Amino acid sequence: xxxxxxxxxxxxxxxxxxxxxxxxxxxxxxxxxxxxxxxxxxxxxxxxxxxxxxxxxxxxxxxxxxxxxxxxxxxxxxxxxxxxxxxxxxxxxxxxxxxxxxxxxxxxxxxxxxxxxxxxxxxxxxxxxxxxxxxxxxxxxxxxxxxxxxxxxxxxxxxxxxxxxxxxxxxxxxxxxxxxxxxxxxxxxxxxxxxxxxxxxxxxxxxxxxxxxxxxxxxxxxxxxxxxxxxxxxxxxxxxxxxxxxxxxxxxxxxxxxxxxxxxxxxxxxxxxxxxxxxxxxxxxxxxxxxxxxxxxxxxxxxxxxxxxxxxxxxxxx
Length: 318
Description:
- By secondary structure, the chain is mainly α.
- It has helices at 21-51, 58-84, 94-127, 132-135, 138-161, 181-186, 193-228, 233-259, 265-289, 292-317; strands at residues 11-14, 91-93, 173-174.
- It is 75% helix and 3% strand.
């Protein structure tokens, strides 16, 4: 990924969001607050699920892995953006730019497949509760996880395979606060319309297809519950509402970014900020505040922490 081997461009200049000091100050505090909250919230989910024996179920196994993906995803772009907010000359090396693009597409692809696995888990739990532990065995959960990572990595590698060797001779300005694939392609010193269309169509198709699969699966679950379980529709809606909210807010900006035929720089940047800072926070906020088992488990974890702290203080005093 050394740009000097095949390109006259060794680094890219990130134009960022705004040069107005007041806006920069707002973005700095907004970014710091949401980034720290995303890190703490997702780390809390991982810690709670791994340490609480009452949460050793397939749903929480998948939820913890979703939090791990969100931790890596927000950390792939947010620290660089926060660091660059007040800098006049925002640059990123060619290799770092390609790595950033690779991580974004790999993690987004992995999360899409993992969300589909979580929808399947909810279908089994609600529609086939007596066979839940048999169908959602530990081996199947691990296979879901491995498959999601393989699909995400393959998707990202295929995307980059067509663009990483493009010639870049200038200009080198990326009108964003991180490297994204469509703008990266436009900077190449060759005709890239067909390539850009293929890349955009590929990501757009995957996003739309995954979104439709998830929505159709949730509708199927609700109709199945309504038909077979008397009075179970409200309970199913309560259970699935958190999942549906995460799916809509995760896929909404992605689909709009790739499908909307009249892209604008400011709107694209707003959606990028939403995906970078707000989307990773959805997982801990929605699943924690709307899940009684998670709230009870967090209280148990907090109690254990206080007991350990008191024991440590008592030991030091003695």
